């Protein structure tokens, strides 16, 4: 893998943590991400929105326990971009 796959959008610390989490699941609830990253809902929303605008993440909403909950999932392009970024990081440190 070449260093050219380094992705500055994904590399930002919170977005990198979001992507690392999404790479291990089909989808994840915003509340889980918020708690895992230890950030406010507004910070999380801003970071997820950046990934969504790039076409890397899809956000969906569903009602559960009488409340509307938001979920995030990688798109195919997002998963590929994240894995390419990880490969580029490994090439840099390797």
Automatic annotation (TrEMBL):
InterPro entries: WH-like_DNA-bd_sf, WH_DNA-bd_dom, WH_DNA-bd_sf
Domain of life (superkingdom): Bacteria
Pfam families: HTH_34
Signal peptide: none
Winged helix DNA-binding domain sequence ranges: 15-93
Name of the featured protein: MarR family transcriptional regulator
Species, as recorded: Aeromicrobium flavum
